[in-house]
Amino acid sequence: MTTTSQSPTSFTSMDTSTVEQWAVIGAETAQNQSRVADRVLGMLESLSEVVDGFAVDQLTHSLQTATRAERAGADDEMVVASLCHDIGKAVSVPNHPRIAAEILRPYVRDEVFQAILFHQDFQGRHYFAHFNMDPNLRDNHVDAAWFALAEQFADEWDQTSFDPDYPTEPLAHFEAKVRSVFAQPRSI
């Protein structure tokens, strides 16, 4: 992790801050942007501890999903989003899509963000009936511009990625793409 020794800000309330102090904060934040990729990679590694009854741990599942996306020709943003789609499970399974999507949001185009945010609605077609839930929640999004991307993600890459024998790329294979996508936010 990188830090700087520029003059620290001294305000104790944002109401008393100055333009100069925010310039220091902005510069240090930009200088330390690489820590975002470091943290994302660390969270991904932590998914190796989350199995919850599946045939593979959640890191392996995420790697398989990203491997499938990459082999299908997805662009780097979608490959990284596929890798990170379940990163929220490092914190909470029930709202993991929103956690993952919000981590990705400043770094990816809107259709990628939306596909990850609503991936559970799309993946539900393959298992929600087992929980007496509506397996057709994806139909709520049928008119969305990102529908086809979310459908491809869920049906071709995500729901098929629980195979202990699938030839899966390791996390190191994706590291450069993770660092590239998280190098500079598009928005705050």
Question: Which tags fit this structure?
Answer:
single chain; 188 residues; mainly alpha; Hypothetical protein af1432; globular
Give a verbal description of the structure.
The chain has a single domain, classed as Hypothetical protein af1432. The chain is an all-alpha fold and 188 residues long. The protein is globular and about 55 Å long. Helix 2 packs antiparallel against helix 9, helix 3 packs across helix 8 and helix 6 crosses helix 8.
Q: How is this fold's topology laid out?
A:
Layout: H1 19-31, H2 34-46, H3 58-71, H4 76-84, H5 96-104, H6 110-117, H7 119-123, H8 147-158, H9 171-181
Helix pairs in contact: 2-9, 3-4, 3-8, 4-9, 5-6, 6-8
Counted beta strands: 0
CATH superfamily: Hypothetical protein af1432
Helix content: 40-55%
Work out the count of structural domains. 1
Number of helices: 9
Question: Gap between N and C termini, in Å?
Answer: 21 Å
Biggest sheet architecture = none
Strand content: under 5%
CA-atom Rg in angstroms: 19 Å
Question: Quick check: average pLDDT?
Answer: 94
User: Which sequence of SSEs, written as H and E, runs from N to C?
Assistant: HHHHHHHHH
CATH topology term: Hypothetical protein af1432
What's the CATH first level?
Mainly Alpha
